[in-house]
Amino acid sequence: MNAPWKPGMTGQRDPFHAFVCDDHSHDLLSVIVSEMGWAPEKVNKGGMRNAVQSLSVTASPQILFVDMSESGDPLNDINSLAEVCEPGTVVIAAGQVNDVRLYRDLLASGIQDYLLKPFGADQLRDALAQAQAVFFAPRDAAPEHSHITTAVIGTRGGVGASSIATSLAWLLSTKHQRPTALLDLDVHFGTAALAMDLEPGRGLTDAIENPSRIDGLFIERAMVRASETLAILSAEAPINQPMMTDGGAFYQLLEEFRSAFECTVIDLPRNMLIQHPHLMGDANITVVVTELTLAAARDSIRVLSWLKSNAPQSRVLVVANRVHPGVPEISRKDFEASIERKIDILIPFDLRIAAQSAKLGKTLAETAKGNKVGAACFSLLEAVIGAAEEDEGDGKATKKGDSLLGKIASLKSRIPARRKDKAAARN
């Protein structure tokens, strides 16, 4: 429940509420509460169920004490309590189950402390004093780094944009130790969680269906933790369930990410540029992932042109991914000529590394450590960090050239004749 506290709410909250199951706890709490100058009538009977019912219609207190002795499913009941608690409420739970795993799970869910019954007066005083100190501790300290929002966009399906997004998020969180959020906006077929051997949960689906619920507490509960510094928000929505949204939920999520993390990586399907162009409004960096093919060249030109017009503040990095050894469909030189800019990072194709990454449930960058693929992923990380630190206006000018059709026609004329002969033979 220790979501980011919202200034200005202190005056609207009672300092303390309690919901207990037995007379002994009720009487002891009433005495201690009176000692601390709080109203003893705020100590109520009824336990967890009464707490949820009461807080669903009244403002949450600064500190909440709730007795879980009658709870058959403590973790599920804590989640129900979280639904009705306002951000910032400091929760102390009590119960009769002496289980280290339960204790850890309850702390991970956001409660401040768990007291084993029967508890004594001194133990209760210490827990309440600590909860009070937590509530009034300074919040929203200035982050060590400015927030970096990176959008990763594939120019074609199958170019490996999701692999690049997960690898970049993993590198930011491990190599630079920056708290990082990975947002996979392919709601039905996203692979961010799958790539790290995690269950996606319903967090993103819930956010789209109920944007009004999105706050710091929602972020804490809905995101899946891949590590101490990396959290993922994704979904596997049923394919017969269209996600109807105006994009407001995505905007709110990004706002919360800026408060809770130092970096955000967005795995952004290219159709989102059409449906929700505002998603690019705060992207510091855009990683355009492509392959060295004619179709990818065409769509790279289109995406780069769109970014120049609609997200001029974003620094663009072009990544050629899964580049096969030997002669590609289009040479790097000809590809760069067609898009009128250099490819920033070239990541070679390695079938063994790709297969191992999938089998182990690890990101491509983690699996490819010490390999050319891993070195290229690390180069991308340094390019993203470097681009974020550069002046906004540097390196953004692009040449004005022919129309899109003209560029494609010119590129077609450079394709080796043997490829044309093969195409003719197939026909």
From TrEMBL:
GO terms for molecular function: ATP binding; ATP hydrolysis activity. One of its GO terms (cellular component) is cytosol. The modification 4-aspartylphosphate is found at D67. InterPro entries: CheY-like_superfamily, P-loop_NTPase, ParA/MinD_ATPase, Sig_transdc_resp-reg_receiver. Residues 18-132 form the Response regulatory domain. It comes from the Bacteria. Keywords: ATP-binding, Nucleotide-binding, Phosphoprotein. SUPFAM superfamilies: CheY-like (SSF52172), P-loop containing nucleoside triphosphate hydrolases (SSF52540). One of its GO terms (biological process) is negative regulation of cell division. This is Pilus assembly protein CpaE. It comes from Sphingobium vermicomposti. The lineage of its organism: Bacteria, Pseudomonadati, Pseudomonadota, Alphaproteobacteria, Sphingomonadales.
